[in-house]
């Protein structure tokens, strides 16, 4: 069977005006996971990212940027847009840097989005799920044996929950666990697609790599 290795982008710019920019730590994380793959001889035959800068820059810092394809189905859902739709433009203020409150609001908002509790968002959850599935199908429609994708936490959570046949809610529970530059591996053939490994970070699980751990 062939392998589809999906990596979450490196740490972006949480709390800044433009989140879609890798932090210095994000570039370091990407270099570390790229070095790991080369050390174990895992060289991709095909590379794909979404169209977001943080995804593309992660692949470049990994050292695998040349010849990559793009598919917008690997882009993250727009949390800011979901918040505006949920609260009709009057989004509650959060204390600056309060990550726990941020992720609690993220979880609650996505659950309501999945339940179609509010309208007005540019993308419904059903549309998000459909484009992620289209991106997955695109990535495995290939003769390549090792496909590398750089995407985002929500997309990886969605792909994983669908592969497991889990309820919609599990997408978000998985999403919130996914570490920056974590590896999620699927095995595929023309007739099969299954999860092999989820949220693995061997490049971080060392004394020298411990400082690389982040979730946003």
Detail the topology: elements first, then pairings.
Layout: E1 2-8, H1 24-39, E2 46-49, H2 53-62, E3 69-70, H3 79-86, H4 99-114, H5 125-140, E4 146-151, H6 153-163, H7 169-175, E5 183-188, E6 193-200
Parallel strand pairs: 1-4, 2-3, 2-4
Antiparallel strand pairs: 1-5, 5-6
Number of helices: 7
CATH architecture assignment name of the largest domain: 3-Layer(aba) Sandwich
Rg calc: 17 Å
What's the rounded overall pLDDT mean? 94
SSE pattern, N- to C-terminal: EHEHEHHHEHHEE
CA-based shape = globular
> What is the CATH third-level topology name of the largest domain?
Rossmann fold
Q: How much of the sequence is in beta strands? A: 15-25%
Strand order within the widest sheet?
Answer: 3-2-4-1-5-6
**What class would the helix/strand composition place it in?**
alpha/beta
End-to-end separation in angstroms reads 32 Å
CATH superfamily of the largest domain: Phosphoglycerate mutase-like
User: Domains counted in the coordinates: how many?
Assistant: 2
The CATH class of the largest domain: Alpha Beta
Q: Oligomer, anyone?
A: single chain
Main sheet makeup? 6 strands, mixed
**Strand tally:** 6
The stretches of 5 or more residues where confidence is low (pLDDT under 50) are none
Helix content: 25-40%
Overview of the molecule:
The protein has 216 residues and is α/β, with parallel strands linked by helices. It folds into two domains: 2-76 and 125-212, 3-Layer(aba) Sandwich (Rossmann fold), CATH 3.40.50; 78-122, no CATH class. It has seven helices and six strands, in the order E-H-E-H-E-H-H-H-E-H-H-E-E. It has helices spanning 24-39, 53-62, 79-86, 99-114, 125-140, 153-163, 169-175; strands at residues 2-8, 46-49, 69-70, 146-151, 183-188, 193-200. It has a six-stranded mixed beta sheet. The radius of gyration is 17 Å and the shape is globular. The relative contact order is 0.21. The model has no long low-confidence stretch (mean pLDDT 94).
